[in-house]
Amino acid sequence: MAGKKKSFFTRFANWISRQAGKPITFISAVATVIIWGISGPFFGFSDTW
Question: pLDDT 10s digit of each residue in the chain, 49 long?
Fold first, then answer.
């Protein structure tokens, strides 16, 4: 299979998996959850939470 061009999906999936494994991705996810939780009282913790 040497020399065979990888499909767009394969290249995209590999890129996503590399990005998902970075510490900044984890920190961003945790920060998003914290901000979401803190913002709850300001929006009244609606049923859609």
Answer: 555 788 999 999 999 999 999 999 999 999 999 998 888 888 777 666 5
DSSP 3-48: TPPPPHHHHHHHHHHHHHTSHHHHHHHHHHHHHHHHHHHHHT--TT
Q: With beta carbons less than 8 A apart as the criterion, state whether 49 and 40 touch.
A: yes
pTM for this entry: 0.61
Q: Are 31 and 37 in contact (CB under 8 A)?
A: no
